[in-house]
User: Fold these one by one.
Assistant:
Number 1:
Amino acid sequence: MANRIEFPQHGGPEVLRWVPYDVDQPMETEIIVRHHAIGLNYIDTYVRSGLYPVSQFPSGLGSEAAGEVVGVGSRVTRFKVGDRVVYCQSGLGAYSEYHHVDQSKAVILPEAISYQSAAASFLKGLTVYYLFHMTHKVQPGETLLFHAAAGGVGLIACQWAKALGAKLIGGVSSESKAQRAREAGAWATLNTSKEDIAKRVSELTAGQKVPVVYDSVGKATWQASLDCLQPRGLLVSFGNASGPVTGVDLAILNQKGSLFVTRPSLNGYLTTPEQLDQAGAALFDLIIAGKIEVSVPASQQFSLRDATQAHRALESRTTTGACLLIP
Ligand SMILES: NC(=O)c1ccc[n+]([C@@H]2O[C@H](COP(=O)([O-])OP(=O)(O)OC[C@H]3O[C@@H](n4cnc5c(N)ncnc54)[C@H](OP(=O)(O)O)[C@@H]3O)[C@@H](O)[C@H]2O)c1
């Protein structure tokens, strides 16, 4: 018998329940992971609220955690019992003491990286990997705008951009977040709650604007993000923290300078175990080299049974960097 978080219907953070359950045997290609730290991601709030609806209730939640392998299915080749692993993109249910995960979603965790650092950085770091190396290849010296730069994905992006020699302008909603983003490597910041985003980007770039904008805020920043782009620039719209972008009139891309827009997801980029291993290795190398640091303050480490409180914190915009759930 173990415990996990479930929800019986979509709704606010209060729908999350702490319930006992039986840990089944693994299917042929599954591993059972005993969790030491669980990643909290903004996408979990979309699943809970119903923005991304689930197919059946009660439903588990979460898709990322780090821990040790305590069971393997009969056709598992990548892992053995006792291995330290981290995974993401699993089926829903990572908010749990144990989770059954297909072996294709996990990688071996290097000894030098703690379970907590791994759970705080794997999904978010792989996201930055594909955004900076695959969606658009960020170049040394290139200037880019990255919204929510002091968030979980954002602080990793600030550090990764610096490691690549790029000049990241971080969009944030407060001065304390601006400071945090600059400490992490942002070249400059703008305060989205006070400043005209496009005007500030224009000032910072001597009127040149930027070739690429990474926008996970969505509805609230869509228009301004387009206005920050150079002719034929690329808007990478990869999240909906303020609500989804809908009803787009394509003519606007013509009017604002023959722009490009893409709406990517991690699932569409890292689709094989080999790609996961490669992207994971790139992230782990940067962490081990000290170029990406992912410590999570005690105030953002929540007991797993307090997932409701953790979701309230994340949605209130008061967190910086990553949050964890600890079983
Ligand atoms: N497509 C993909 O592959 C992919 C993968 C991973 C994550 N994502 C997206 O990346 C974003 C960041 O994820 P995360 O887990 O690291 O979360 P996070 O950045 O730690 O938290 C979300 C941040 O969004 C900003 N925000 C702006 N408007 C908001 C609003 N109305 N309500 C709440 N927050 C608002 C807040 O920063 P400020 O207060 O500074 O504005 C907040 O801290 C999310 O949108 C997520 O969906 C996409």
Note: The chain is about 30% helix and 25% strand.
Number 2:
Amino acid sequence: MAEPSRDPPSALSADFMSFSPGDTASRWLACADLQQEVYCHLAEYVPRILCQGGGMAEHREEQREEQREELALQLLLLAPLEWFLLGGEPAAGLALLQQGGGAAALCGHVFKVGEPTYSCRECAADPTCVLCMQCFLASAHRHHRYRMTTSGGGGFCDCGDAEAWKTGPSCQNHTPADQNRETEEDPVSLLPPAVEERSCSIFSIILQYAVDLLTWEQEDQLPAGLEPPQRSDSYYCMLFNDEVHTYEQVIYTLQKAVNCSQKEAVSFATTVDRDGRKSVRFGDHQFCEQAKAVIVRSTSRQSKPLRVQVMHSALVAHQCFALKALGWLGQIIQYSDGLRRILCQVGLRPGPEGENSSLVDRLMLNDSKMWKGARNVYHQLLMNSLLMDRKFKKLFAIRFAKNYERLQSDFIRDDHDRQFSITDLSVQIFTVPSLARMLMVEENLMMTIIRTFVDQLRHRDAQGRFQFDRYTAQQAFKFGRVQSLIGDLKYVLISPPPQWSQQLRTKFLDGFETFLDLLRCMQGMDPVVRQVGQHIEMEPEWEAAFTLQMKLTHIITMMQEWCSTDEHVLIEAYKKCLSALSQCQGGLPDGEQPISLSLAGHTVDTFRYQVSQEKVSIHLPVCRLLAGLHVLLSKTEVASRLPEQLPLGELSPHLLIELPLRCLVLCAQVHAGMWRRNGFSLINQIYYYHNVKCRVEMFDKDLAMLQVGASMMDPNHFLMIVLSRFELFHTFSAADLRRRYREANKDLAQQNTLIEEMLHLIIMVVGERYVPGVGQVELLDEVRREILHQLCIRPMAHSELVKALPENGNKETGLERVIDSVASFRKPGVTGRGLYELRPEWSKRFDLYFHHYSRADQSKAEEAQRNLRRQNGEDTALPPPRPPPLCPLFGSLVNLLQCDALLALEGAVLQWAVEPSGGGWTESMLQRVLHLVAMALLEEQQQLESSGADEDVSFTFSTRITRPGEAPSTSGSVLALLESLQNAPHLEVHKDMITWILKMVGNIKTTRERTSGSSVSVSHGRRPEESVRDKDKAERKRKAEMARLRREKVMAQMSEMQKHFINENKELFQQSMEDLEAAATATEHSPPSLEPTCVAHICVGPMRVGGAERRQLVTCILCQEEQEVRGHGRAMVLAAFIQRSTVLSKNRSRGIPDPERLDPLFMHPDLSVGVHTASCGHIMHATCWQRYFEAVQQKEQRRQQRLRGHTSYDVENGEFLCPLCECLSNTVIPLLPHACSPDRSVEHPCLETWLKRTNQQAAALGFTHRKQSHGAAQQVEPAVPDRFRVGFDPQNSFSSGVGEMINTFSMSAYKVGLKVNPNEQDPRVPVLSWSTCAYTLQSTERLLMDEKKPLFGSLPCRQDDCLSSLTRFSSACWTAAPIRTVQNHFIRLLSVLVPIPDSQLEDAPCILDVDMFHLLVYSVLSYSSLHSLDQSGRRSVDSAHLHLLHLVTVAHLVQVLLTFTTGELSMDQDGEESEEEQLTCQLYGRLRDHLGRCLPDISCGWRLWRCVRASVLPFLRTAALFFHYMNSASPPADLLGTGPGQWEALCSYLSLPSNLLLLYQNQRTLLEPLIHRWCCHPGVGQVLHGGGVLVRFPRESNRLIDLPEDYSILINQASSFTCPRSGGDKSRAPTLCLVCGCMLCSQSYCCQTEVEGEDVGACTAHTFTCGAGIGLFLRVRESQVLFVAGKTKGCFYPPPYLDDYGETDPGLKRGNPLHLCSERYQKIERLWRQHGIAEVIGHAQEANQTLVAIDWQHL
Ligand SMILES: [Zn+2]
Ligand SMILES: [Zn+2]
Ligand SMILES: [Zn+2]
Ligand SMILES: [Zn+2]
Ligand SMILES: [Zn+2]
Ligand SMILES: [Zn+2]
Ligand SMILES: [Zn+2]
């Protein structure tokens, strides 16, 4: 690469020294042409300071370069500007300005990506009004219902903006100190005049400069006055971002084009993506052109090429400085509102070219031509300046609105995301209601937005409707971008005006009319025709139309809301909508054949049209808008008050209902299976038509339109038209026709479904009254009814209910306002979520034919409700609930229920049901008819009740059904039919309902008789009568309310009393709870056969009890055969899982040791990595298991080609799932018989004798081994003890099968523990087996201790079995290794404690570097190898174990005392010192004698002893577990509980004196030299002086990190976390390690590292150092817990954060405040500490196969 000429750093440094910004500023002050002077300065310095070279340098070099550049920039370029502006030293001047200007009343904090934002659901004007965390915490909204989200970047805090908040607009920090200053006062007047003048000139020069450069389009030239003094031939090859090419494509191309490494290419691509451009090559012109050519050539094949420019270096430098200068302006104006306003003035001052020539206009209009980085900088400046100034925000808004169309078209053509476009600022402007209205009035904004939108969608059919079916990908892309315009419209409409001006009315109605134009283009789009014969060949496009509908849903609703606030607007809008509809429907009946229908004595004229044969469309927005407006006419009572202003007479109800009815018939026919050949697109459309996202402005409005039509028509006519459109007219018009039809037609089921659907429709038309305006209800009644019906299906979580309810424009459903009145909340446990349950009194409101039920919902709800009633011992009739009264405009709807046509229908269906054999009817049909009858009776009863005794009730259903059927139905009356059905055996299910109906008929009859008897006094006029009745009603309501309040009070008292009672009797409650628990645990795990209590329980040494007597019988889970466990029998194994673990680690910074060189014989007390074994406890024959595993392997091999490795377990690594419980396993533990009973006949040597003898044995062995390996003996042969046969080869006591299994497990422990390939010759093999035994016991002991469980008897069986077989295995595993190896291990282990003469063991570690429990286990287990050579017949192995225990315990005491630290100074104990304390003091004194000043002087025995006791306890407990399992010794009763006396019981179980210090005291002469040797080990001094890892005792248990209670604190932490690798960038997926608290930059290229030859993400890499392959993380942005195991396995786990409704919020989608649930966090912690993470991952992956396919290693 050519090294271009550039200023050597020294040249610039010289300028550093001599340059004076003050002098430069004075020169500028004095000059005549300031602009020329400043440009001259910039022309000279900018190219020399900025953008020197290619940026290919090393990371560190680059950083230094950047720092140097920054310094020079500050001193040489920005400082003169500041001196000039302030007329003196900048710091002082700025401080002065800040004092003079007063604090800003707006926060204006601009959000970073991922920063938390808060919105108050009670007070925010709309959901876009947000607060930053600081403001939120200082605001009143903290105590309201709020919503929390993470910002996508951009946008600012609305604190202080009075229009954004209904209450509490300012937080404490931004409340204006002086309320009066609120009034418009020009902040410029507060500036010193000289500063005002100078800022004006310098701001305009700098802004002009920046705008010129950012909008500069030439590559080689510079704007006038900026040409550098000497021009060099140095260029940049600049690569620009686009959204077409992928990361990988760019990286690949760059490697080819500029010949850089993969790493550099990644860095380039990252920068291009972030900043929008990046120079990829620096050099002379030709050199850069070459690179450009390659890039363009290699990317132009698939798509449009990447954009590349070769730009002169001076130009690039100036562009860089322009951005810096804009940043500087943004900072300077923060000091004073006056400066801010001056900048605003400069920015918006019209330029010489008139319209659109201000600097801000020029920036906006060039927005789409700029690169991302430049856009970001100037958008930020606009937000800091124009949008923060009250006056100029308005002026800017006008500029923005004037340019709106042009900006939008630019954006739509551009390919950058909207967040990088100037159009994204609309949210900052349009959501301010006063600005939006001003723009509507003055700039006709509403119309502009809609026009711009419609203009962009040009594809229309012949009727002018949108046509989406032949869309290309490019058009679809454009369609996607156009949708943001709808968002803008939503902002404008989000809050209806409190007052209307005449102008606003006019402009709104203009906008409304334009909107109707848009809707007319949608009316009838995507029509469908029923496909017969063949299936359609291609699914038609339908999504675009529905996307549009969905996006517009809120807009349509908001339009209606606006209309409802002003009578005049409503009336005009109604008229406009009606005329738009008549234009759409102009030709509807044309060309259709008129026909005349008659039924039940009524006749109606209509025309022939069949949904099943002609075009039909699901899109009818104009009709639906009219329906909405019509309902509003009723709701606002405009219709009754101003009927003369409405064109109601022009309405033709027949035409109004026509299209909605077709649409509903279409749904029914699809349902009946008549449209099967039309494919999925139609099914999907029907689905969305009813879906909660669309139904408000689709299905609901169609139903409303039918109600509108029916209320204006003769009910018989309405029904006949419905019948005709359902193509069912002939079925009902002649009674025998159906029979004929039945015989002729095969599609009877189809027709039955249609009849059911039609009846359902009639039920809905009459019964659905919960829309304010249709029925006399409030909005909240509607919400309450929705919730109630959801909860009738089953109890539901908050989020489920939210999903089932439509949201309004403010994303509110109203749920919270009513939920508590209908439902009670049930809290979640440690799993699951909180649920709402319907209060029983509300189930009476259940309506089986609720219009928003799907068929599935309906049948579930029906079943649930019937069951409920059965449980309560009630009948199972589900009659309709009492409906609310209809509004007057819809009052006549009830007549449908008793019209002749419906009675005829009902009669017909009942008649069919009487003749069950025909099969021409269905139960659903009958059920619907019964429902209709019941509705009619309810109506009549209600009318009777409310009419009192004084008027005729016109509703006479009960008498009408007694008349025999009219016209076609020749049968008896409806009532007679019902009576005959009552006892029909085939209608058992409906019996209760029929009974209910007949009872109701009886009741009504009685009421009528009673009232007609007394209804004499009919005198008053109607009106006063009504008001009296209203009063009565009000009175009744008041009384009911009083009663309710009283009830509630009583309830509250009761619950208070209950609480009190529990408090009083707390102890009682607690005790009984404990008893229960104790009983439960006792029965669960009965302790292993308690022996008679007279025998002392001892687990180690010659006095130990228990052992071989018991036989073990086990059953193989595979072949079900029973088998006895014997050393020479068939091998039995336990499925097990071995993993490395850092759970106990006290030192996570220890690096991963090199597995080939690691010596695992001495475990360091920091326990940094251990090997853990777990088992599900399932036992198999070894041979059965082998067969099973081979089968698994074969299966995996067969499918490897296609689905390589797509399983939750890795067969190649020996993994399999337990055949019974599917628990992840990777090896098996052999089951071995119990240890032999101790030989009580032999004499047991004392410690001294034993030591001497063992020393001799060791020396002899050592000598022999050396002789064998080195050949010649250098020394005299040591004396061999009596009958100790050095060369003896002990007989193996296991069968070959058992031996093989011992080998298998040994190898697994070795392989997993060291991460190496199996090698049976490696001497470390037995060590790893001992290691996993010791580590597993240690971690078990910690868990029991921390959970305060008894040491014995509280483990689950599977764990108990696992530890028992693991320990017995380890005591036998030495037999599988060469005996010499094990003997050598023993000698080395012993040499830590005891000097072994004549051995060359100089490498023994000091006792501070050895974990004593591991030492104990290893030495006990390896001793057998030595002992087996002793042929003296003295089976003294037990006494050896005891001696080893004593020795190690003393060593541990010394270890604890050596590491003792004074720590926190607690009160010293008064009074006598106990014996223990004195002895501890003595021992400590001895240690100080040996070590001198290394140890602090402590004379307080009490504190020493306290520390010793606490530290030794875990050791003793673990040792007790070890000997318990090894020797099968049953524990004493005291250790089965947690009561007092644990210490004594433990010591006696371990055959130790309960005063442990006696171990030392009684053997002083023997031990003193040993202790001296331990202390004098050079390692001790080194560690104590800080030269190593010093572990102090007691070791505290590890816990997961503490998490904050409030989740937003975490989000905030994460948002300020920057990627550690890409200099200060925000991390996209900040992820917190729950083990060590480290924050990582996950799931990103920048932080990938290589682990074992593969690139892995930050999380996976971290698990290798922090968790030995296991990791637990919290993905902060997603609110998700991530478990990772190795590179390929992982799963997500519910986070420990819940909202107030007891639900988690993965992805933070709902935004409810989240709080830590400590129970759930403890559960996760327990999983981790129990080593259960891998198992959880295994189960999760088994249950959900998609988890297996995720590339976990990239996280
Ligand atoms: Zn703020
Ligand atoms: Zn604030
Ligand atoms: Zn609030
Ligand atoms: Zn078996
Ligand atoms: Zn199992
Ligand atoms: Zn960590
Ligand atoms: Zn990163």
Note: The CA atoms of residues 273 and 907 lie 73 Å apart.
Number 3:
Amino acid sequence: MGRYTYNVIPSVQTKVVFPFERDIGISYVKLLLHYTMLEDDSYRTGTSTTPACECRSGRETAEHFLIHCTGYTQIIKDTIEVALYIVNCVLPTSFLKMYFER
Ligand SMILES: [Zn+2]
């Protein structure tokens, strides 16, 4: 747990900013502490028989779930585009489609 947190937050002085939505903040902390219902965490704690993801392309870790899972390819792509929009203030096409073509 400590080593993983260090990989994400390498400096003790780093101020972690959590979202205003409490349930989203709780999810962030659970991902950070490896205390989720993802298969890899469940396998480690003995509540799952396998650490493998349903997509069969790897262990269902937080990183796999958020970045690499082939089962959520479009959601991951949209999330990354929205994150890039927030950082660069460039509105991605898929973001427009997602919110204005319903
Ligand atoms: Zn997967």
Note: Residues 53, 55, 57, 60, 64, 69-71 surround zinc ion (CB under 6 Å).
